[in-house]
Design brief:
Helix content: over 70%
Radius of gyration: 19 Å
Structural class: mainly alpha
Distance between the termini: 26 Å
Shape: globular
Largest sheet: none
Length: 314
């Protein structure tokens, strides 16, 4: 189990990792962590190698996890993250709500985890409930913001970024700047934390959006280029698997910025790159106002059609 999980979490030797953890499931089919590690390895293969063919199998193993350990928060949380990334928001919300109940109550199986309440805020934001999302982000900081856990810094930084996006949607740009800077401050306080590079990337892109809307074009381009360079290098910070992160998500955030600056061809190219990396959240293309500048483009409509034709998870 742990040897396979180590390779999977490092994004290395994923085929070997899957073989090892599959063997663990054979040896202990009633061990929820065996199923959990196998599901996570399949999920991480989608993020690291852009092979999302194992998502349904990952969900099936996570269902087994929650049947064997009903209060194991990550079983619900990672399921919710997978359903979110394919745009099945209602199912994602149902699962994140279950994880959030465990996180708030502090009554858990196997081990404590963090991030479900923030993840619930993300789903609610995607559903268009900005006030509800804001309340859940407040709850995330209040309940788990100081929890001793390896993922707390990354969760906090992500939550600041998500708040920044929410404030930008409300056109509260100065407050959004503060939120993205708060994300960076969290990263700089915890530079060695797991997955911490992803929220730092998001913060640079968020600042780029803010600066552009405030007509600070030089600062906007500087922030965007920082994100581009960081994604290319993936150095200095940890870029291991983290929900709502990975190359696919970041390329789509870059497409969103380029679209908002009316660079339609560059945005479409970045969007196509995101899809190549496994991005599948089709409903966002309809709801994100950043893409208003390109809705009549044939390439945009083709991407929409291709994503809409893909089978949903069960």
């Amino acid at each position: 189990n742990y040897l396979g999980y180590m390779w999977a979490d490092r994004g290395e030797r994923l085929d070997e990792a899957l073989e090892l953890i599959s063997r663990a499931v054979e040896l202990e089919p009633d061990n929820p962590q065996s199923h959990y590690f196998l599901a996570v390895a399949l999920w991480l293969r989608g993020m690291d190698e852009f092979d999302t063919s194992g998502d349904q199998e990952a969900v099936d193993h996570l269902k087994e996890v929650t049947a064997l350990a009903p209060k194991y928060q990550p079983g619900y949380q990672i399921q919710g993250a997978i359903y979110l990334q394919v745009g099945q928001y209602d199912r994602a919300r149902e699962l994140m709500e279950k994880g959030a109940v465990i996180e708030e109550a502090g009554e858990f199986d196997l081990g404590r985890f963090v991030g479900a309440i923030g993840g619930l805020a993300r789903v609610v934001f995607r559903q268009g409930d900005l006030e509800g999302a804001s309340q859940y982000l407040d709850d995330a900081f209040r309940i788990s913001g100081e929890t001793e856990h390896v993922y707390t810094p990354a969760c906090n930084a992500l939550a600041h970024c998500w708040r920044g996006e929410l404030l930008m949607r409300q056109r509260r740009r100065e407050e959004a700047l503060q939120a993205f800077r708060a994300a960076q401050e969290q990263v700089y306080r915890s530079p060695r934390s797991l997955g911490i590079g992803w929220p730092l990337l998001r913060s640079h892109l968020g600042l780029a959006h803010c600066f552009h809307d405030l007509r600070m074009r030089r600062e906007a381009e500087s922030s965007f280029q920082q994100a581009v360079s960081m994604l290319e290098a993936k150095a200095d910070y940890d870029f291991s698997g983290l929900w709502d992160s990975g190359d696919a998500q970041i390329h789509m955030e870059m497409a969103s910025y380029l679209a908002s600056t009316h660079r339609v061809d560059a945005a479409l190219e970045m969007m196509e790159k995101a899809v190549e990396c496994g991005w599948r959240e089709a409903p966002r293309l309809d709801s994100d106002p950043s893409f208003d500048t390109m809705r009549n483009e044939p390439r945009f409509r083709q991407i929409q059609a291709e994503l809409a034709a893909r089978p949903q998870l069960v």
